Amino acid sequence: xxxxxxxxxxxxxxxxxxxxxxxxxxxxxxxxxxxxxxxxxxxxxxxxxxxxxxxxxxxxxxxxxxxxxxxxxxxxxxxxxxxxxxxxxxxxxxxxxxxxxxxxxxxxxxxxxxxxxxxxxxxxxxxxxxxxxxxxxxxxxxxxxxxxxxxxxxxxxxxxxxxxxxxxxxxxxxxxxxxxxxxxxxxxxxxxxxxxxxxxxxxxxxxxxxxxxxxxxxxxxxxxxxxxxxxxxxxxxxxxxxxxxxxxxxxxxxxxxxxxxxxxxxxxxxxxxxxxxxxxxxxxxxxxxxxxxxxxxxxxxxxxxxxxxxxxxxxxxxxxxxxxxxxxxxxxxxxxxxxxxxxxxxxxxxxxxxxxxxxxxxxxxxxxxxxxxxxxxxxxxxxxxxxxxxxxxxxxxxxxxxxxxxxxxxxxxxxxxxxxxxxxxxxxxxxxxxxxxx
Length: 438
Ligand code: DGY
Fold this sequence. Notes:
Layout: H1 2-16, E1 32-33, H2 34-47, H3 49-60, E2 72-73, H4 85-88, H5 110-121, H6 126-146, E3 156-157, H7 160-163, H8 172-176, H9 189-192, H10 201-216, H11 221-227, E4 232-233, H12 235-255, H13 258-279, E5 280-281, E6 286-287, E7 289-291, E8 296-298, H14 316-326, H15 364-376, H16 380-397, E9 402-403, E10 416-417, H17 423-434
Antiparallel strand pairs: 1-2, 3-4, 4-7, 5-6, 7-8, 9-10
Helix pairs in contact: 1-17, 2-3, 2-5, 2-17, 5-12, 6-12, 12-13, 15-16
The structure holds (2R)-2,3-dihydroxypropanoic acid (DGY).
(2R)-2,3-dihydroxypropanoic acid binds next to loops.
């Protein structure tokens, strides 16, 4: 079984390779995406390290003059995706690069990806690490100088696409309060996959409304921080920033970049001193999102709520509390193990939808983060469970984008949804199967 999975996963990456970078999947996502590329590079690291390096170099071609790293780099032309570069129109910003890009970012995974790749190839990797380290440092510098208006080391996201968990029910309430224009949108995603498994048209109108606002402010961070109706401190995003700081600190030490390491450590201390206090909800026994506009926590639990384990943020007692409440016969496992780990949204919530994108389905990258998070706290049974569930889903269905978490499905229903031959599903499967325990 393992050999077949490895071979099929390698074929997926090979087919999605564009000679310089890897698309997430054909049709639905025809360009280079930021956090996809980080996870994809981990997969390439097991097959062909030169491709892993090329993947990261290509992504960095999209870096803006102020260090910002956008969520899409449009290296090529394609009519199969909306919104394309003309909608983003990032030339309005004085910071825009020569490359065509989007104007928002995505969760910062590259710092820890660099460290994981180094673990695969050792000393031989340091030349490349030294080449990209300054760009990654500048990206983190951008976050701490432009995205942390309260000086807490907790950066904001200003668009739901920045979260990566695009249509999670966490922000349903924010959309309800928004009076976005009813744009006529030329959506392409629903031409590739079932519209019932994607965000609704009304949600897309809110997404585009935010883009139009940012354009009208020339993508100026100060104006966005002041006026964006969507301004959130996200536990997944901030935990990955912290884990990436950790990766960059380790790599910076190996590279002898003392000044940058000192600065990263100062940011790290600031982040860690506020994270738990501001984002932990004792009522939910989980990390939650903080709405900077409403100045309150959003009390919904999603798979993002558990990503702080990956970054070593909770103390041992809190980590145990989280595991007990949600995984050991708790909300996300179900009382009798009714769900594959890990649903992307609380299965006990009325908003849970096991088929619709980030409103319930299992995602392989979140499972990979949880697997390493559980290992970090010595929760070996849970780590084994999430690994087994992941491989079982991939084996039964193929390398889909997301999966129905209900173990018992109505007869005849297939549980793989969204794009097929999805690159990060393949890349992280390779990493789960081939990485030696450290
Ligand atoms: C999409 O188009 O669905 C992406 O997630 C946005 O980056």
